[in-house]
Design a protein that fits this description.
Strand order of the largest sheet: 2-1-10-5-6
Shape: elongated
CATH architecture of the largest domain: Alpha-Beta Complex
Helix content: 25-40%
Distance between the termini: 73 Å
Number of strands: 10
CATH topology of the largest domain: Sulfite Oxidase, Chain A, domain 2
Largest sheet: 5 strands, mixed
Number of domains: 2
Structural class: alpha+beta
Oligomer: single chain
CATH class of the largest domain: Alpha Beta
Radius of gyration: 27 Å
Mean pLDDT: 88
Order of helices and strands: HHEEHEEHHEEHEEEE
Strand content: 15-25%
């Protein structure tokens, strides 16, 4: 009888201990939730800085860029696929800068070597250079990807052909559409990567208008936001050129 009574008290004590632990756990959860909400509230209500993004978030993106760039190697290539793996129905990852108010016959590529010194080239000038093809998995920040097939001239071959060695030693390349609506800035090491193309073909045929005809950038080591369509002007800089999506809060580096 005494043994049963002792067991009942033991059970009661265990029940109280469980309730106490539940209350402590719940209190800790509420405290952590409150701290998290307060931190989010303070961050969200910070004044927006560079690129319509809070300075704290931008500093995280810049830190990531520095980290990834330190480990970048021009010898690292995006995985290659066979042409038979490439999709016939290539998705369009944006249409800024490729409006209908454009005359392909009047197009020329402008290469600003330095202030007051601009090289003007035709598409035939580019096609006269050795052609390179790349089949890779195109990745969009929207969350989709496709194996796609492109042809054009390597950026590195292009720069060497036109004696742009001083420009190749600079830190960045900027590209702008003819209407100036879309623009990107890309680090020079990524531009010199052997798969990076000034591209004038898709699936073995001339680029369609919605894919950036007559000339676009294909850079497999970057997300699609860097693959500028309808290149109008190329220039060089030791400071970061303007970048359309970075100004809207996205990662400037956009590397894979």
């Amino acid at each position: 009888m005494r043994k049963n009574s002792f067991s009942s008290r033991e059970v009661q004590m265990e029940g109280k201990d469980i309730r106490r632990k539940k209350l402590v756990s719940f209190a800790v959860f509420i405290a952590l939730l409150s701290v998290g909400y307060f931190a989010w509230y303070k961050l969200y209500n910070q004044p927006q800085g560079e690129g319509k993004i809070q300075p704290a978030l931008r500093s995280v993106l810049v830190t990531n860029e520095r980290l990834f760039s330190k480990f970048y190697s021009a010898n690292r290539k995006a995985k290659s696929y066979s042409k038979s793996d490439a999709t016939a129905n290539v998705r369009v990852n944006g249409n800024v800068g490729v409006g209908d108010n454009f005359d392909p016959a009047a197009w020329h590529l402008k290469v600003a070597r330095k202030t007051g010194d601009t090289l003007t080239l035709s598409l035939d000038d580019l096609k006269a250079l050795p052609k390179t093809e790349v089949v890779f998995d195109f990745k969009c920040v929207e969350g989709w990807n496709q194996v796609t097939y492109w042809g054009g001239v390597r950026v590195s071959d292009f720069l060497r052909k036109y004696n742009l060695a001083p420009q190749m030693a600079m830190g960045y390349v900027g590209m702008v559409t003819p209407d100036s609506a879309y623009y990107v800035g890309v680090d020079m090491p990524s531009m010199l990567q052997p798969q990076t193309l000034l591209c004038y073909e898709m699936n073995g045929k001339p680029l369609p208008k919605n894919q950036g005809a007559p000339l676009r950038l294909i850079i497999p080591v970057k997300y699609g936001i860097k693959h500028l369509k309808r290149i109008g002007t190329i220039f060089f800089s030791n400071t970061k050129p303007r970048d359309y999506w970075a100004e809207l809060g996205y990662d400037y580096y956009a590397g894979l």
